[in-house]
Design goal:
single chain, mainly alpha, 4 helices, 74% helix
């Protein structure tokens, strides 16, 4: 019995690869969410990293300035994520201190 090979359009492939690369989610998790096999998504991601496109085995003809911008944007995104994590940590710390002060005042007033 022949297996039915599903054909995915370019937009779907690029979107799936973008989810993996931008969110950092593991390939099996994203594949399950999208209803595709993990091996299929893995090949799209590796092809996109190698050639710049999940749909083509041919490398991008010439490196565009957009490629360099993407690397800078990726570095900026990582910096902003780190900064946001540090700020969230500081906010939680300040909220704990506030809660302790509230409890102290409540006990002091009684």
């Amino acid at each position: 019995m022949a297996s039915r090979k599903r054909i995915y359009d370019t937009e779907f492939r690029e979107g799936a690869v973008r989810i993996v690369t931008e969110t950092g989610k593991p390939i099996p998790e994203v594949a399950e969410d999208l209803g595709i096999r993990p091996g299929t998504l893995h090949s799209w991601v590796s092809r996109a990293r190698r050639t710049g496109s999940p749909s083509s085995d041919r490398p991008v003809a010439e490196p565009s300035p957009g490629g360099r911008v993407r690397e800078r944007e990726r570095a900026e995104l990582e910096r902003l994520r780190t900064e946001a994590r540090e700020k969230d940590k500081r906010i939680r710390e300040l909220e704990r201190e506030r809660d302790v002060c509230k409890r102290f005042v409540a006990l002091w007033v009684k």
